[in-house]
Amino acid sequence: MQLLGGLHGAALGMREPWQFFWVGGILSSLLDNAPTDLTFCTLAQGLGLANEVAGMTHAILTGLSLGTVFTGANTYIGNAPNFMVKAIAEEKGIRMPSFFGYMLWSGAFLIPCFLLVTWVFFR
Asked: Where are the alpha helices (DSSP H) in 1-123?
């Protein structure tokens, strides 16, 4: 964590809330959102920005939190309940999309929503 926290985190060039929203969100789509959120919190704390809450600005924390929570719905693995719903539906005989099929469906509906969130909250 020291690599992101203070040694090399600033080299990634992330300083804006919308960047934390999108990069944290993309990783949260493929990983569990809690470790992704903690990793990017460490990165934000190492940037030396105002210490408004938990060593970062409110805006950065908002971008990171919204990104990691909202975008977990992009894939089956980004949010544990997605897998649970898929398993229950298939057990009941309901055909569910494949991993990539689900990503196409979720992307078609969610990416426009995420663009809207970016425009409303981070401009």
From this structure: 2, 17-30, 33-45, 58-70, 80-91, 99-121
